[in-house]
Amino acid sequence: MMIADSHAPNPAPQTQRLVLIVDDSRAQRRTLAVQMTRAGYQVAEAANSREAMRLCLERRPDIVISDWMIPGHSGLEFCRRFRAMQSDRYGYFILLTSRNDKKDIAEGLRAGADEFLTKPVSGAELLARLAASERILRMEEKLRSANTRLTAALTKLRETQTAIERDLREAQRLQQGLVRECHGSFGDFDLSLLMRPAGHVGGDLVGFFPINAGRVGLFALDVAGHGVASALLCARLAALLSGTNHQNVAIRASDSGGCDPKPPVEVMRLLNSLMLDELRIESYFTMIYADLNLWTGHLRLVQAGHPHPMVQRADGRIESIGQGGLPIGVFSQADYEELQVTLAPGDRLFIYSDGLTECENARGDPLGEEGLHAILRTNATLHGDALLESICWSATHYSSGQRSDDISAVLVERRSEGASCS
Question: Which of left, alpha, beta for 135 (phi over 0: left; psi -120 to 50: alpha)?
């Protein structure tokens, strides 16, 4: 095999690449090696496939120039083995052949060859093919480098996501701890709470607290949005509406040294002012706050953008009460209207979040107030947790389990005459 003289430009890369020349003719190998060395490449030589495979394992050449016919295995079989050993980098493979049949070329391509040179090889053509191989190898290196960086970034992302998931699970436990008691019995009244976040943490909060021997405060609120920001605001609000200490915005000290309830309208105004003047966050929440007189069953209640509470009478009739009202934290001059309702023995008050009525079926139809009325009628004989769980199950079944919003509820039941609290 002869190589014609060439005045082609030097195609060598900035960093020397290793070229492996595989040919059983020592003279032909040396001729190619001189040409490669002059072009700026490192050169290794092998006379047969076994020696070539050893050099591939030990030195991992960037480019292989192999004759089609070599001792041990054919150039095609050597090419296949060369491709099989490449896992983390690409090597450019050039087959030398005196064949020019299209079937041979197709067979070589299937074996993994990148390029073909026909004997005798022109020096100019060889250098041109090497320049082409350099472009391919540089592209492959860039892709490999980008893939390495991407893999590292994905690993870091997975680690971060795992940490976030762990923190969110802990936040969920902490948020569930904001509802210190899910049940309470006060005189003739039983109070039950339900809180089911759609994700790890949610923006709903429900609760109740004793004010004095004859009064209980109860609330339900829904912070706009989801996630950590909503949960943090819920935690702040829980601190303002918990216990009987002076931090509870719904309680004031009485002249006798005890505690008296603040009017529900005043409570809403205080929370609205807190949101706009102190917290100054771009969020708002809907809420219902009620003051229950345990002696008379009389409720003083304010609705601030929250869904309409429902009163189910002892005879099964259901009434939706309230006019809607404005959410907390939107308008500085917002005013609120107090509602009054009395629960007779056997009556109950159901306060819920819009995550319940906005559950949609497969056709996109929301459950709505009428659907909730139907669920309450169907479950009229249930009480407390059993009723709340049945309502939640019915809504989940209606939406085929596809729930995207938190569900929360407060249930206030006045026991019938002579009924026990068990």
Answer: alpha
